[in-house]
Amino acid sequence: MINSLFEQFEIVRLIPFHPFGNLDLSFTNSSLFLVIALFIINSLINNNVKNLVPGRWQSVVEILYENLVNMVKENIGNAGLKYFPFLFSLFLLIAVLNMVGLVPYTFTPTSHVAVTFGISLSLWIACTILSFINFGSNFFAMFMPAGSPMALAPFLVVIELVSYTVKALTLGVRLFANITAGHLLFAIIAGSTWKLLLAGGLLTVLSIIPLFIILFITVLEIGVALIQAYVFCLLSANYLNDTIHLH
User: Fold this and answer.
1) Which helix (DSSP H) or strand (DSSP E) does residue 13 occupy?
2) What pLDDT score does 4 carry?
3) Residues in the chain with pLDDT < 50?
């Protein structure tokens, strides 16, 4: 039973490709659903947001657009609007990846820490490089809070440096943990419901209860998928704020 629960997270090589010995560049199910997510985003944006009078989907996109613009202004300021296209694209990618995985027999790339950590590490590296470009050696001032006694400098610098470095890990792990936990819970309840349906008799009638729970969890997971995408972008905006405003 445990193995069946984790089958949904298994990486499958669809097109094996090993160009240099042990270097594995195979096209996997994770790669496939990343491509599918990009195709969905491109199709929905290009085909549904060009009308003067917005339809349902265009209205949804415009609401997302407005909320994310306000989020960027609140966390970075008007100077941070140059990062808005990136944050908006990041939100759509993570949200679509999260929700595609709710469809039976699909795969959720964001349920793998390698994917989420890869995104968060790339963001952390980009923020660090941009901070060096914008502030030069003054960038290191953020590791020493203003007004702190010099006697505590070695300890404060180490603490701030560790705190800054951990950002690369926590951002990706948070997304991975929430998505994985939700999918496991969904799989456990769905498996129990299926067994009750096959049992027959009174148990089949009782299966209605977990069936309603599944419907509730599905709606909840859609909400979690959107919220986690928003939280990821919100924290990303806070990190990008350090590339404009040195603390």
Assistant:
1) strand 13-15
2) 57
3) 1-2
pLDDT digits (tens, 9 = 90+) for 41-74: 888 777 655 666 666 777 777 888 889 999 999 9
State how many domains the chain has.
1
pLDDT recorded at residue 231: 92
The pair of structure tokens assigned to 94 is: 């993570």
Q: What are phi and psi of 115, to 5 degrees?
A: -75, -50
For residue 151, give both structure tokens: 């006697």
pTM of this structure = 0.83
Examine residue 122 and state whether it is found in any structural domain, yes or no: yes
Distance CA 231, CA 166 (A): 17
Query: CA geometry: angle at 182 spanning 177 and 188, to 5°?
Result: 125
Position 51 scores a pLDDT of 62
Q: Which domain holds residue 17?
A: 2-241
Q: Which residue has the tokens 């679509």?
A: 96
8: its two tokens: 């949904």
Q: In angstroms, rounded to a whole number, what is the distance separating the alpha carbons of residues 222 and 242?
A: 31
Contact 87, 236 (CB under 8 A): yes
Q: What is the pLDDT of residue 1?
A: 42
Residue 246 maps to a domain: no
- Strand partners of residue 23: 20
Do 144 and 156 contact (CB within 8 A), yes or no?
yes
Note whether 72 and 83 are within 8 A (CB).
yes
The reported pLDDT for the residue numbered 53 is 63
Count of C-beta atoms within a 10 Å radius of residue 39: 11
Phi, psi of 20 (to 5 degrees): -130, 70
Q: How many residues does the chain have?
A: 247
